[in-house]
Amino acid sequence: MKTSRPSLARTMMTSFRNRRQRPDGASAVEGGNGVMTVASYNVHKCVGTDGRFDPGRIIDVIREIGPDVIALQEADQRFGERSGLLDLNRLRLETGLLPVPVMGGTKSHGWCGNVLLFREGIVEDVHQVSLPGLEPRGALVAEIELQGREGRSSLRVIAAHLGLMRWARRQQADVILDMLQSRQERPTLLMGDFNEWRLGPGSALTKLEPVFGPLPPPIPSFPARLPVLSLDRIMANRTGLITDVTVHDTPLARVASDHLPLTARVDPNRLGD
Fold first, then answer.
1. Is Coiled coil one of the keywords UniProt gives this record (predicted)?
2. Hey, how many other C-beta atoms are within 10 angstroms of the C-beta on 8?
3. I want to staple 82 with a disulfide (CB 3.0 to 4.6 A). Which of 76, 116, 242, 243 is the partner?
4. Is 59 exposed, middle or buried (0-12, 13-18, 19+ CB in 10 A)?
5. 3-state helix, strand, coil in the chain (%, to 5)
6. What are phi and psi of 268, to 5 degrees?
7. Quick check: pTM over 0.90?
8. CA–CA gap between residue 26 and residue 24 (Å, rounded)
9. Strand extents, DSSP E, 20-166
10. Neighbours of 32 (CB within 10 A)
11. Could you state, in order of their start, the residue ranges of all structural domains in the chain?
């Protein structure tokens, strides 16, 4: 029997259906009862869909979301000294978020453009992973100790930005899995711009399924003005660890970057399950 391969048109139709099913306006993720908001956001070097460089709009979108943990992509300049593009002091004052510390360039915010910000907790470990491919890509891994109703627990967060070529994404997924196998097992979130619109067997993300389970339903986040492709993802290595994954779709988010942020909820008290 001939197996049909996922096409761009079919993926776009699936994305349109998921877009109609999500709530209109701002993200449906709300805090309360100890539930954390996590998010992933490709800030496109702070250049909006209007072609204007405006880091302040990115901070305003992050304030709209109100995350406890957020992974940013393209938050540094691409080449040269890879200088950070955001005002981290303003971000801290207006959102309470602090960057996970990294080793490397003194002017950059993160690692290969990836920045992890968190509101509360203690960073126990940080690991910077270089990913293979033709482009400079990387993953930033942080283990953060959190306080829940049942006591302290640790959450591993991986912020990644995968490549434009499918063969590179496959290799990059293998590197991430190899890294996890070499480290102690614990609740883990994988967040970022994975640059993969395909669904099913054709998707490079199927490489991640042995650890992160079946791919979640696609939620369109790109392009921001009329999102039809699910390039951004939030995944977990434990069933039920994340809920209410949705896109943060507001008038400001549609103009601040070419991607919309993706958000989800995490109950810290389930981290020990």
1. no
2. 11
3. 76
4. buried
5. 25, 30, 45
6. -55, -25
7. no
8. 7
9. 36-42, 69-73, 98-99, 115-118, 122-131, 137-148, 151-161
10. 7
11. 35-270
